[in-house]
TrEMBL record:
Residues 5-106 form the CoA-binding domain. The lineage of its organism: Bacteria, Bacillati, Actinomycetota, Actinomycetes, Kitasatosporales. Keywords: Cytoplasm, DNA-binding, Repressor, Transcription, Transcription regulation. It comes from Streptomyces sp. SID7499. This is Redox-sensing transcriptional repressor Rex. GO terms for molecular function: DNA binding. SMART domains: CoA_binding. The keyword Transcription applies. GO terms for biological process: negative regulation of DNA-templated transcription; response to redox state. InterPro entries: CoA-bd, NAD(P)-bd_dom_sf, Tscrpt_rep_Rex.
Length: 118
């Protein structure tokens, strides 16, 4: 669709809704580039249902369903470093093929999955 000049809509899930995750959820630059924040996911049960940038935070227990229901192909990881690899593995298992990693750790992914360290 890019060749036709159509705007691509890339659904994005942000995992880890602390200060950085919340700031990214509120960042307008994603939408202007065709990236739509479709889901916010956090491991803290107290965060579940809390609206951030107009989107209710959902619990990591539901990650697979959330990724599937929203057609997410891009995951943004803003978790503490100790949780990042497990989150990455779960995102990949759920079908995510591109990951933007803000956690201060190196992630290992299978062939065919693109990771960008920020």
């Amino acid at each position: 669709s890019r060749e036709l000049g159509l705007t691509q809509d890339w659904p994005v899930a942000i995992v880890g809704i602390g200060n950085l995750g919340a700031a990214l959820a509120n960042y307008g630059g994603f939408a202007s580039r065709g990236f739509r924040v479709a889901a916010l996911i956090d491991a803290d049960p107290a965060m579940a249902g809390t609206p951030v940038a107009g989107i209710a935070v959902q619990h990591t227990d539901d990650l697979d369903r959330i990724i599937s229901d929203n057609g997410v192909s891009i995951g943004v990881i803003t978790t503490p470093p100790g949780a990042a690899q497990q989150v990455c593995d779960r995102l990949v298992a759920a079908g995510v093929t591109s990951i933007l990693n803000f956690a201060p750790t190196v992630l290992s992914v299978p062939e065919g999955v693109d990771v960008r360290k920020v």
